[in-house]
Structure to design on (1144 residues):
């Protein structure tokens, strides 16, 4: 009996909700079916006078019906709300630019340096540092470049006026860091030494007196030319995100023997020959070689106990290649029109 | 150095084309920087003989010539006047297109017909001389192509020979030997025999045997000084040398062939003693002067070496001859010098006197003393062609240099190159380079000829083996190494972290030079600071090493203001402080600048301060405070900053107590507005605020690990409080008073409004209360009362109630 009554309430209520046309009608119906004086509420109130068996039957059913009616109301109310909302009135011009967020930009050379450091660090290389103002000893003598030797002409050096006996200069390469590091560490080791260098050269689109060099040094008892080729290929393949081959040509740097110029396969055509590599298939990158035993001796190592390779290249050149930058002077220009492109 | 392909081909017997040779040399020996063709495109330029010359009837400067080109007679109008009847000259016939693009057509010049053109040197692409028509040798064959007649067609290589190979490869013979080795052949040079002519007319005395290891002198008589034959002149011109006369040209020719600089003196200009010629090789006297061939007078020191007679210096040894003793048209007897000088001494002299000569260029690189006799024999042979007769030869060579031996471990070759090269191949390579190989087993003995001064160690030999064998054959192989984490470079990681935070705050990174001018230093008020100075700056703009990043930052701002109204930039870099030790103190600094579009109430200052707080907090520093400027040390750059708008950034806390004896303020940098007067001096007409950190000082404070603080379990409550100050008062003092009066219940005091009206300043704060329990409203009210009375009595503030 009672169950049937509850069921009828439900059917009646849901029907009424469906037929309601205004929010006012809905709220009247809510009072009628769910209010304190509603039939359903009366049933729920009467539960306490029932036998446990009746309660068990009627209670859950009544509560469920109440919930069903409640969700019927919510559904209907949401329908009314959405019908009444005027989207058209609030429509805007979405082609108007968004609010400008002022962004900072890390200098492109810093980005490249980070990238290089991360690749080498992942191969177990330590990052070494040294002074930018260096003594003649570390800049030249310890690197097997004696005074009054024509090899000194390979570096146009900025010298510093000094009162002391020892001549000092702005380092023309990062190689002095090799010797400073070796004085404090014993092989085997793998290091890189990135940093600012200076050469007394007139500036133009491809020459800059202040630049960033990158130096790698690997020393052990059996390090050889093949190892250099391997590490070089690993690094450049990762950096340019393609398979890179290394080509060595004979050259001369007093701190290595044998000494090389090294080229990489063209990063545009992979060596087939294109405009970027002027048809040759190779790009000149930097200098390298097997560490001269005289350099080991200057660092205090016994001669002919260790072998190692050293190589260096300019960050600017890599950046110019990677981003097709045509004027090296832009890097030190401080011009935000340049910096903000990266 | 420039090399002639024809000459190299003749000496080496190579069958390679110029392009193949370039490839071979580049990959295995030397970088070829350029290749230029000469004598090309001269088809139609033939040898002609001038039969007649008449004045042009209608033009004063022109002449009418009749020229015979083997049977055919041409009328040609010509502007040059160095010709005479009977001369043989190059004639560009109708239809010829010259290297400079000029096409020869039949023409009428001022009413007279012209059927070709007589050519000057430059029109043939040979040298730059446009002084007159090129006069050919008398025996030139009429009608013959001029390029064939002059052996003009050639390829000129520009090859970069680095200092290690300058000893032997700055010569055609050296390069030919290299080519043979690379082609797997052995080079042979047809060396001439020295005439054996001992006598007493010439004596040579070397005073300093260290500076002059060898001196050969020859007396050549009966010489007729005149122009060199065309083949010699043309070769010199093609290789960039100016022909002078047959004697001087012969010395230069031999230098290009063998690499040995030679010098010729006019014997009549050397002071005789009882008809004996005396050559003395000695150090110059301090202050001794000599007028040299370029016409300048050089003052010498005792470090310079001269060639002298018993009265005066005749030449600066190995660098340049003296003016008075050179070869002239009147010279009849020549003293020919083939000598060897100490490289370092030549280098010092030429550097000090700034004399770049072909001789010094070779001597400063150390050449083989045994080369002198080869060169002497060759030059005497050439001069013999001009009638010169060698009557006497003197050779002072106290310490003869002999070939030396290097023991080479065959395993070491493979260990260093990472490639197994068979002994047979090793021997073949070394022998083709002119070395001798002996020995059995794993160690061989290599005898090095004296011209390969660069080969001294095993590694030197391994390089020769590697490059000739071919580096391309060496396989890339992973080195065997222990797996280990690379030790961190904490300074670099920290710098990167700070830079990333700045970028996150909207700052862009600039790079600038490490130098600035003395004027910049003055404008930045650094005039009294001792700077490191460059001894050889590019220009005065870059004469001083920076002690601060700020001056170049200001220049950057000035330039960027041309394109941007507001921006934030930073630079991270080193500054250099002279400190009495050999090397300066290099400090790693980081400077940031804010430029806003408008600045009415120190907005730039508060912006930079906000950024600094943000940066420090991101680094885990929370106990920073800003102190009035302590203008004591010079490093504070007091007058660079706005005197009323700058402060020192300090950190209060245990990190410093640990590092420096219990003091509680730890300065890490400065912030503030740049002095507006300085800004105008830098041509910046806006306000600019900056911060400057010492990265090392900053890094000392961030070693403490961040620690989690439990999130409050109990609700906090916030009250607002506004007040009016009749006099100047610091917000930090108000905050201190509020915190003190509120004791433990105050969690935070935040300023949210400040404005001035009628000469008084109004402040408004949010005060946040909280404790480890739910606070009663009454408690908070009572604390507020305490705060109000403290502010009224301590700071004489008028607190607004309700």
């Amino acid at each position: 009996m009672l169950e049937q009554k509850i069921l009828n309430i439900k059917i009646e209520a849901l029907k009424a909700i469906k037929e309601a046309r205004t929010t006012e009608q809905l709220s009247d119906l809510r009072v009628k079916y769910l209010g304190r004086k509603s039939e359903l509420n009366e049933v729920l109130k009467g539960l306490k006078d029932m036998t446990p068996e009746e309660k068990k039957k009627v209670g859950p059913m009544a509560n469920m019906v109440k919930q069903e009616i409640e969700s019927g109301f919510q559904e209907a109310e949401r329908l009314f709300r959405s019908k009444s909302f005027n989207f058209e009135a609030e429509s805007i011009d979405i082609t108007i630019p968004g609010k400008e967020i002022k962004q900072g930009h890390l200098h492109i050379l810093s980005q490249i340096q980070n990238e290089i450091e991360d690749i080498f660090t992942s191969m177990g290389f330590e990052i070494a540092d040294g002074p930018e103002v260096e003594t003649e000893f570390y800049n030249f003598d310890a690197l097997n470049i004696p005074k009054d030797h024509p090899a000194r002409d390979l570096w146009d050096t900025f010298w510093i006026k000094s009162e002391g006996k020892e001549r000092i200069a702005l380092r023309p390469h990062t190689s002095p860091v090799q010797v400073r590091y070796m004085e404090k560490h014993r092989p085997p080791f793998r290091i890189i030494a990135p940093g600012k260098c200076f050469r007394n050269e007139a500036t133009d689109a491809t020459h800059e007196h202040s630049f960033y060099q990158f130096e790698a040094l690997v020393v052990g008892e059996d390090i050889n030319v093949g190892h250099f080729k391997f590490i070089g290929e690993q690094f450049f393949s990762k950096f340019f995100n393609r398979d890179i081959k290394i080509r060595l040509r004979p050259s001369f740097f007093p701190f290595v023997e044998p000494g090389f110029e090294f080229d990489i396969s063209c990063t545009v055509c992979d060596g087939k020959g294109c405009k970027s590599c002027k048809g040759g298939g190779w790009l000149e990158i930097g200098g390298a070689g097997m560490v001269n035993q005289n350099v080991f001796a200057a660092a205090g190592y016994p001669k002919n106990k260790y072998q190692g390779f050293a190589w260096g290249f300019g960050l600017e050149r890599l950046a110019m290649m990677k981003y097709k930058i045509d004027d090296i002077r832009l890097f030190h220009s401080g011009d935000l029109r340049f910096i903000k492109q990266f | 150095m420039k090399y002639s392909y024809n000459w190299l081909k003749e000496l080496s017997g190579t069958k390679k084309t110029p392009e193949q040779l370039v490839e071979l040399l580049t990959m295995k020996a030397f970088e070829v920087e350029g290749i230029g063709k000469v004598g090309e495109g001269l088809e139609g330029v033939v040898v002609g003989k001038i039969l007649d010359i008449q004045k042009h009837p209608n033009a004063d400067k022109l002449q009418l010539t009749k020229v015979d080109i083997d049977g055919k007679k041409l009328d040609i109008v010509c502007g040059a006047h160095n010709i005479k009847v009977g001369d043989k000259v190059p004639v560009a016939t109708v239809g010829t297109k010259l290297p400079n693009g000029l096409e020869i057509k039949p023409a009428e010049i001022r009413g007279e017909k012209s059927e070709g053109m007589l050519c000057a040197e430059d029109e043939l692409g040979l040298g730059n001389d446009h002084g007159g028509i090129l006069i050919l040798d008398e025996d030139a064959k009429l009608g013959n192509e001029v390029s064939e007649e002059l052996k003009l067609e050639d390829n000129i290589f520009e090859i970069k020979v680095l200092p290690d190979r300058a000893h032997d490869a700055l010569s055609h013979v050296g390069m030919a030997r290299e080519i043979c080795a690379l082609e797997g052949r052995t080079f042979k040079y047809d060396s001439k025999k020295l005439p054996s002519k001992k006598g007493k007319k010439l004596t040579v005395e070397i005073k300093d045997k260290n500076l002059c290891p060898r001196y050969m002198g020859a007396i050549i008589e009966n010489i007729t000084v005149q122009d060199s034959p065309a083949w010699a002149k043309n070769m010199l011109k093609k290789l960039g040398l100016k022909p002078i006369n047959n004697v001087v040209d012969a010395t230069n020719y031999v230098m290009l062939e063998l690499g040995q600089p030679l010098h010729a003196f006019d014997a009549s200009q050397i002071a005789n003693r009882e008809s004996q010629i005396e050559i003395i090789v000695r150090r110059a006297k301090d202050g001794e002067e000599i007028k040299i061939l370029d016409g300048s007078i050089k003052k010498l020191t005792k470090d310079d070496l001269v060639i002298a007679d018993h009265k005066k210096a005749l030449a600066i040894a190995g660098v340049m001859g003296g003016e008075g003793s050179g070869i002239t048209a009147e010279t009849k007897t020549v003293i020919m010098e083939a000598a060897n000088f100490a490289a370092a001494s030549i280098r010092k002299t030429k550097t000090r006197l700034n004399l770049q000569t072909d001789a010094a260029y070779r001597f400063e690189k150390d050449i083989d003393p045994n080369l002198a006799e080869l060169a002497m024999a060759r030059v005497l042979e050439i001069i013999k062609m001009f009638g010169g007769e060698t009557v006497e030869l003197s050779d002072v060579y106290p310490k003869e240099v002999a070939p030396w031996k290097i023991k080479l471990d065959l395993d070491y070759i493979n260990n260093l190159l990472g490639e197994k090269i068979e002994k047979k191949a090793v021997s073949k390579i070394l022998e083709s380079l002119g070395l001798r190989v002996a020995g059995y087993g794993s160690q061989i003995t290599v005898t090095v000829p004296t011209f390969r001064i660069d080969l001294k160690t095993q590694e030197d030999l391994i390089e020769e083996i590697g490059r000739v064998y071919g580096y391309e054959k060496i396989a890339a192989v992973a080195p065997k190494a222990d797996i280990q984490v690379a030790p961190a470079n904490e300074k670099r990681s920290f710098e990167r972290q700070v830079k990333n935070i700045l970028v996150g705050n909207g700052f862009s990174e600039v790079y600038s030079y490490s130098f600035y001018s003395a004027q910049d230093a003055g404008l930045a008020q650094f005039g009294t600071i001792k700077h490191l100075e460059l001894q050889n700056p590019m220009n005065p703009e870059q004469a001083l090493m920076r002690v601060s990043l700020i001056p170049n930052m200001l220049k950057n701002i000035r330039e960027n203001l041309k394109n941007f109204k507001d921006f934030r930039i930073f630079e991270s870099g080193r500054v250099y402080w002279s400190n009495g030790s050999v090397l300066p103190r290099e400090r790693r600094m980081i400077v940031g600048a804010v430029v806003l579009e408008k600045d009415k109430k120190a907005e730039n200052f508060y912006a930079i301060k906000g950024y600094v707080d943000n940066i420090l907090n991101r680094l885990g520093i929370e106990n920073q405070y800003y102190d009035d400027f302590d203008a004591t040390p010079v490093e504070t750059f007091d007058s660079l900053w706005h005197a009323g708008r700058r402060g020192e950034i300090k950190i209060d806390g245990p990190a410093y107590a640990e590092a420096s004896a219990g003091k509680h303020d730890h300065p890490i940098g400065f912030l503030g507005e740049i002095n507006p007067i300085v800004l105008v001096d830098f041509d910046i007409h806006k306000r600019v605020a900056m911060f400057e950190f010492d990265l090392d000082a900053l890094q000392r404070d961030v070693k403490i690990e961040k620690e989690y603080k439990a999130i409050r379990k109990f609700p906090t409550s916030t009250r607002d409080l506004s007040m009016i100050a009749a006099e100047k008062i610091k917000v930090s003092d108000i905050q201190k008073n509020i915190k003190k009066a509120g004791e433990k219940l105050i969690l935070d005091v935040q300023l949210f409004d400040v404005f001035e009206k009628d000469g008084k300043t109004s402040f408004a704060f949010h005060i946040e209360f909280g404790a480890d329990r739910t606070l009663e409203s009454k408690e908070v009210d009572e604390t507020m009362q305490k705060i109000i009375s403290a502010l009224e009595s301590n700071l004489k503030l008028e607190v607004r109630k309700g």
Summary: Chain A touches chain B through 85 residues (CB under 8 Å).
